[in-house]
Design a protein that fits this description.
With 276 residues, this protein is of the alpha/beta class. It has one domain: Alpha-Beta Barrel (TIM Barrel). The protein is 48% helix and 18% strand. It is built from eleven helices and eleven strands. It has an eight-stranded parallel β-barrel with strand order 1-2-3-4-5-8-10-11, surrounded by eight helices. The chain has a three-stranded mixed sheet with strand order 7-6-9, with no helix packed on it. Helix 2 crosses helix 11 and helix 5 (87-95) runs parallel beside helix 6 (110-126). It binds zinc ion. The site of zinc ion (ZN) has 6 residues, from loops.
Amino acid sequence: MALATLQEVLSIAVESNTAIPGFNIDNIEGTEAIMDAAEEEHCPVILTVGQGAIKAGQLEHLADLVKRIARESTVPVVLHLDHGISYEQTVQCLRLGFTSVMYDGSHDSLADNIRESQTVVRSAHAVGVSVECELGAISGVEDGISHKNVNLVDVDEVREFISKVDCDALAVGIGNAHGMYQGTPHFDFDRLQACQKLSPPPLVLHGGSGTPDDMIRQAIKLGIRKINVATELRMAFMEGLESTVGQRDFYQMYRTAKENMAALARHKIQLFQGKL
Ligand SMILES: [Zn+2]
């Protein structure tokens, strides 16, 4: 099937009170592993290209890969830019055929974030592409970028932002962080509920790696409709490679890495779909 937009798959999640996975992709094998899991579970999937992959020179390769995979896929696939760093980068992705772009202005002032987000939305919507924005900078380290800000979103800022920016999804900081958590994370669910009462666009949880299943269920119950997982998938892949390194069998190493990653992706999908 053709690539789907973020808005299209999130409307499925809104109707079914589930969350769609936003899985980061870095290479062909990992992308295939995620697609194996998504097709097996009949679940739409958001294939996300992050800043680490872009820095590694993978932007165009991954865009081509996802477009080919989507044509052959039995489930809706979104080609999504994660944490777009500038208006220019989002435009580059529009040209490459992305069906969704995230613009992350959460580290700027609210006024600047609103202004830049409006510009991205205007360009993306003109060509039928969805936009995710962010409020309450999500902390932790992602793709080598460290975010030290306090990451609790201000509910009044959410109210103002959504009255001015017609985005299709909004990532909020509620105590979530990128990378793996040291110990159990603490999510401010009251804050999430207060955001949800404002009837925002579908809300997004970044930093899904290592979040206890119960907290994921609660977040979905309170309106989270997209959950990002990157680090945990990469770790599953690397652990697969490490477990076979002594065998010195190139293809067996990749097979094991893919199977490991697909098993984790299946678990996350089942959890996000309310099956676990
Ligand atoms: Zn993120």
